[in-house]
Amino acid sequence: MNLIYMIMKGSFVYYILIFYLIIPLVRRPTNKKIWLQGILFFVLLTVYEYYHNYYVRFPDSAEHESIPVRTFFLTSFFLDFIEVLVSVFIATLVVSNEMRRHKSELEKEKLKAELAAIKYQINPHFLFNSLSFIYTKAIKSSPEAAHAVGLLSEIMSYALEERDEFGMIPIAVEVAQLNRVVEMNQIRFNHKLKIKYDENIEVDNAQVPIFILVTLVENAFKHGDLTDEKYQLTIELKVTESKIHFWVRNKKKKGNKEPSKGIGLNNVRQRLEMMYGSEHSFTIEEDEDYYMSHVAINF
Length: 299
Hints:
Layout: H1 2-27, H2 32-57, H3 61-64, H4 69-120, H5 124-141, H6 143-160, E1 168-170, H7 171-188, E2 195-201, E3 207-209, H8 212-223, E4 224-225, E5 233-239, E6 243-252, H9 263-276, E7 280-286, E8 290-298
Parallel strand pairs: 2-5
Antiparallel strand pairs: 1-3, 4-6, 5-6, 6-8, 7-8
Helix pairs in contact: 1-2, 1-4, 2-4, 5-6, 6-7, 7-8, 8-9
């Protein structure tokens, strides 16, 4: 029974150490919450071991003297140290294997993206020269139309600008792009769209993959009924020291709808999975009338 107890306890301790404490710390070593959870875990484990040894295995006070308290705590500290070393070694192997597999998948996806870009690319200089020409012609006769062209030019510049291999950008840059998309759609629909945008950014160094947030908002413009004052398009962004939350809620459009194959949302889902794995969630909730998407990212 003691052997079975030791195996079960050891399995539980190592499982918690490796998958709930060490691996998250290897990925995010500055996360204070995980450090506190680790300290609390070892305190509770030591208290449990003390109770089990002194009141379960050796319930008689005479038998307590065979294991002095000081010896117990020194032994517990030494064993805990060994357990941490073993867990760090295993966790490092697990994370390294995940990173190698993740890097291989990213390289394959990058190659696919490069091939797709070659297949569908247009000359950026031709695009910007054309937009500049249209802007110049429209500025006198229709300043608002010219402004929309200017916004489109900025959006295309944002999309075509060179990024790192992971396509990561500061959250503020993606938010600025999101605001351009909102403004251009307001012009498109004669400023009749009912939109509520809430933003709470506590840190400035957070980053996201390019177009992740914009794609979800564009999906609402494409499929949502955004002219009802009671059911506005609601966009909410919250960025803390360790997490990004982004919600988009809208009323569904009735009647004829724009055709869609869900490519944008599938692209968002795949990119989040490749970039963050288990450190993110992407959920969609909908019924007959309403639609909500939510992205949560740990960083």
